[in-house]
Amino acid sequence: MSSHDDKRSPVPAFHLDGVSKSYPGVHALRDVTLEGYPGEVLAICGANGAGKSTMARLLAGQETPTSGSVRIGSHGQIRKPADAEAAGVLLMHQEPLVIEDFTVEENVWLTSLSSADGVKAWGTVRRDRGARTREALDAVGLSDLDPRTPVRSLGPGPRQMLALSRTSVNHHKVLLLDETTASTTEEHFRDVLELVDRERAAGVCVVFVSHRMPEVFAMADRIAVLRNGQLVDVVRTADTDPDEILTMMIGEAVSALEPFDMKPDPAADPILEVRGLSSGSAHDIDLDVRPGEIVGIYGLVGSGRSSIARSISGHQDRRTGTVRVRGRPIPSGSPRRALEKGIAYLSEDRRREGFVPAFTNALNLTLATPGQDSRWGVINRRAEKARVATLLKRYQVKGGAETMTRSLSGGNQQKVCIAKWLEATPEVMVLDEPTKGIDVRARLNIYEIVRDLATGGKGVVVVTSEAEEALKLCSRILVLRDGAVVGTYDPLTSTTDDLIRASLGGDIS
């Protein structure tokens, strides 16, 4: 745990004074007063929709308060992004801001191309980069990455670390990390922690918005807890524990989730049969999933776990191997045919592949099943409206049918994505990192949905980079290393240490 004394600068790095923020029908923040100080890490924790990201956007000038004021240091009120930038605020989003058609190097310097005074010529930036680009990449664990590499070839984790590399080339006094670690892996978190330690030592105020308790307690000096838009309390990390913070977040103690103790009938025929599958970095994969079984696929970055998920569901071509659902062959490289045959896939990248940003909840929820509410090609709007209302209630999605899905919190967006595919009544549901970037309450909601699927006799495949999640959620776990299955584990008799050791190929101490 980080150490931090109470010898603070007389001038706060930021100050929220009686801030409230309302949207039509929603009170995102209510009368919040909070300060952050130079050289400290302040965590902002809260359940889904508590107002965490709204607070970050207010500090970054991307939103203006309905009432109250936002000040950065000795600067005046922050009313727009240019004000925040001039005051030294740097915001890092949950979804990394990168341009796919640019190289790694161009993305490192992306936000340095503009300033409060206007746009800088790229040639001016080029003359000043050189070794600083390499230093910026080294600082976030990307020392092996060629600066000339196109960003479109990078996965979510490296993209997020690339965005974080900009802390080395942008002057700032307040660093806002809004669920930034949600797209990183366990391997990269040490790099994030080292970066935050450097920022603290340099006198930067780091605001860490997160729901991940281990990361909060590893990083933060103080923790501010929001619930339903109100500030519940601000406590020193040394004086509290995760259970107390979770209790403040959702209003009740969160008991440890028990492992999924439902075993499928070993004599039952598999719903899903995978034989000799090779795709991407995965090779020669055999996999059976029986009715009522949740099979976890755990591994580190590059182990091939997502290649298996995408190739099973038709989103990625198979080099070799067969996939069958109840004996029916699934063609390679066709998501539509896979869905018709009974396989639905939830992507790990919900913003790019999970929903249409320009669509409402109603349109996104019915996107995969338009025929359910139509006859002879004409949609029955009354039937569609009733179905959408039922789905919003069943999956506890915040917001109405006409709410834009992109405006929802990460947990609610994920529930919209899951509901959309479950409406297609698949035999097999393949979930790639289903709880990435969502808070504890939404995570428990999704665990309940997944377990209900298995209890209803469906087959479920869960791809995860979190060993603890694999043990809590799954009935059987396959561990991948270098594209191959290196072990099968029973969650009732295994530990996180077992999974991590197997994924690394030896002793992790």
Automatic annotation (TrEMBL):
The entry's keywords: ATP-binding, Nucleotide-binding, Repeat, Transport
Residue ranges the record marks as coiled coil: none
Domain ABC transporter: 14-253, 266-507
InterPro entries: AAA+_ATPase (IPR003593), ABC_carbohydrate_import_ATPase (IPR050107), ABC_transporter-like_ATP-bd (IPR003439), ABC_transporter-like_CS (IPR017871), P-loop_NTPase (IPR027417)
Gene3D superfamilies: P-loop containing nucleotide triphosphate hydrolases (3.40.50.300)
UniProt keyword Ribonucleoprotein present: no
Official protein name in the record: Sugar ABC transporter ATP-binding protein
Pfam family, one: ABC_tran
Superkingdom, taxonomy of origin: Bacteria
Chain segments annotated as transmembrane: none
Entry GO MF terms: ATP binding; ATP hydrolysis activity
